[in-house]
Amino acid sequence: MAEPHLIGDTFLTPPPTLLTIPEGFRFRSEEVIAPFSIAYETFGELNEDRSNAILVCHALSPSAHAAGKYSETDPKPGWWDGLIGYGKAFDLRHDFVVCVNFPGSCWGTTAPSSINPRTGRPWGSAYPQVTIHDMIEAERAVVDALGISRLKAVAGGSLGGMQVLMWGALHPERAASLISMAAAAAVPVEGMAWHVIGRKIIESDPAFRGGDYYENGSTLRGLEVARMVGHMTYLSQEALEQKFGRRRRGSTRQFEIDSYLEYQGKKFAQSYDANSYIRVQRAMDEMDLEEEFGSLPKAFARFDGRALLISFDTDWLFPPAEVLKVYSAFSALGVRSEYHEIVTTNGHDAFLIDYDLITPLVNDFLAGPEKTKAETSTHLNPL
Questions:
Q1: What would the DSSP string read from start to end of 197-258?
Q2: For the chain, N or C: smaller number of CB within 10 Å?
Q3: Do 128 and 110 form a contact (C-beta atoms < 8 A)?
Q4: What's the mean per-residue pLDDT of the chain?
C-alpha cells in the first residue's frame, strides 16, 4: 500500500474520475442521454480480491468528493471527512471507499446544466426526471467498471441512506452490509410537504422560465428561498434556540435567524442548480419501498447481509419512528441488524456533525463477523 499524503487529520486525494458511457444512460423513464458521463471518486486502495470496497452514497447537495483535499490549500475537505480517512470509521488503512455523483446532480455527472450535443444548449427542462433507481444504476455502473462484484458495505445518510436501503432491495446480493443514517424507506408527509413548498417557490420564480434559465446569468431568488425552507428541516428546535433565539443582528431590527437563512440560501444558490434541486429532491419524495414492493419485509426479502440503522432524536425530516419501521422489517425477516438512536441537538444534520458518536457504532459494526438471517437482530438503547 502506498503511503498516504496526510495533511493534519485529512489527506490528499486525486480529482474525480469520469466513467463515460458512449451508448448513453437509460433512465427509468426509458429516456436516454448519450453519451453520458458519471463522476466518481475513490479513496484508499482496492485489495487484490476486491473484497474491501465500501460504497458511500451522497445526499442531495454534496458531490462525490466525500473525503480528503485535492490540494493542501483547499479550505475544506470532502463532506464526510469526519468518517472517511486513515484511522477513521471507514478506515482507509484497509478499506477502499468509492463515492458516485448520481444523475441529476450538478457536480460532474451529466446534468440538466450540461450541454445537449444535439442543440448546443443546456438540457434544462428536457433533462429526464430522476429516480432513486437511476442513482443506484449509476452507482452500479461504476462499481461494475471497478470490477467489484460484492461490496463490503453500502453507507450513507439522508438521501444517501435512502439509496443504501434501495441497494438492499434492488441488489441484495451485491452488498454484505448496509449502513443507513438519518434515513427511512420513504420521506414522511411532513418533510414531503416542506419539499413541495420549496419546489413550488422555485417554479413560481419568473426567472426560472420552466427550467430553461441558463442564459439569465444570475442566481435564482426562488432557489435561495427554497433552500431556506429546506434548511429548516435539517435543524432542531434546540439548535435554533441555542444559536439564534429571538436575538437581533447587531444594532439592527433584523433577527439573527433571518440573516442566517439569507446567508445559507444565497451561498447555496451560487453553487447549486435549480433544475438539479427539483429533480433530486423529487426523486427523494417519490421513493417509497412499501408502496413499490407491497411491504417492507417484501422489499428486503432477498437481503441476506447485515444492517446498521442510526437515527437522531431531534431529526425532523426522518424521526426515529420512521427508522424503526425499517428495523422492524429487518427483524421480522431475521436479518442481523442493529438500531441506534443518538441523542443530539443537531437535528437531521447530525450525520454530518456528530462523528464522535457515530464512529464507535460504525467501527463495532464493521469489525463484526458477517452474520446472516439465522441470527437475531439487536435493538440497542439510545446513546
A1: HHHHHHHH-GGGGGG--GGG-S--HHHHHHHHHHHHTTS-HHHHHHHTTT-BSTTSS-BHHH
A2: N
A3: no
A4: 95
Instruction: Outline where 212-371 has alpha helix (H).
Output: 221-232, 237-243, 256-271, 274-286, 289-293, 296-299, 320-333, 355-367
Given a contact cutoff of 8 angstroms between Cβ atoms, the answer to whether 217 and 234 are in contact is: no
Amino acid at 362: V
290 exposure class (CB count in 10 Å sphere: 0-12, 13-18, 19+):
middle
Q: Which residues are catalytic?
A: 158, 315, 348
pTM of the prediction?
Answer: 0.95
DSSP-assigned letters across all residues of 128-173 = PP--HHHHHHHHHHHHHHTT-SSBSEEEEETHHHHHHHHHHHH-GG
Identify which of 64, 92, 89, 88 has the alpha carbon closest to the alpha carbon of residue 78.
64
Cβ–Cβ < 8 Å for 139, 41: no
Q: Are 125 and 71 in contact (CB under 8 A)?
A: no
User: What is the sign, positive or negative, of the torsion defined by CA atoms of 150, 156, 158, 160?
Assistant: negative
Q: How far apart are CA 155 and CA 338, in angstroms?
A: 14
User: Strand 336-342 relative to strand 306-312: parallel, antiparallel, unpaired?
Assistant: parallel
377 pLDDT higher than 50: no
Mean pLDDT of 130-139: 98
* Structure letter (DSSP) for residue 105: -
pLDDT at 376: 38
Of 218-227, 319-328, 343-352, least confident by mean pLDDT is 218-227
Question: How many helices, marked H, and strands, marked E, lie in the chain?
Answer: 11, 17
* Tens-place pLDDT, residues 18-71: 999 999 999 999 999 999 999 999 999 999 999 999 999 999 999 999 999 999
Confidence of residue 83 (pLDDT cuts 50, 70, 90): very high
